[in-house]
Amino acid sequence: MAEPLGDLTRTHTCGGLRADDVGAEVVLLGWVHRVRDLGGVTFIDIRDRAGVSQVVVRENEALATVAKKLRSEFVVGVSGVVQRRSPETINTKLATGEVEVLAREIRILNEAKTPPFQIAEDSPVSEDVRLKYRYLDLRRTRLQHHIGLRHRVTMAVRRYFDANGFWEIETPILAKSTPEGARDFLVPSRIHAGEFYALPQSPQIFKQILMISGMDRYFQIVRCFRDEDQRADRQLEFTQIDVEMSFARPESVYGVIEPLMQQVFKEIGHEVRPPIRRMPYSEAIARYGSDKPDLRFGLEIRDLSDVFRNAEFRVFKDIIAGGGVVRGFAVPGGNKYSRSQIDVLVDQAKQMGFTGLIWVRPGEPPLSSVKALTEGTLRAALAGASAANEDLLLMAAGPAEGTSKLLGQLRLAIAKKENLLDPEKFEFLWVTEFPLLEYHEEDGRWYAMHHPFTAPLDADIEKLESDPGVVRAKAYDLVLNGSEIGGGSVRIHDAALQSRMFKRLGISDEEAKERFGFFLEALEYGTPPHGGIALGVDRIVAILAGESSIREVIAFPKTANAVDLMAGAPSPVDAKQLRELHLKIQN
Ligand code: ASP
Question: Is residue 555 scored above 80 in pLDDT?
Answer without folding.
Answer: yes
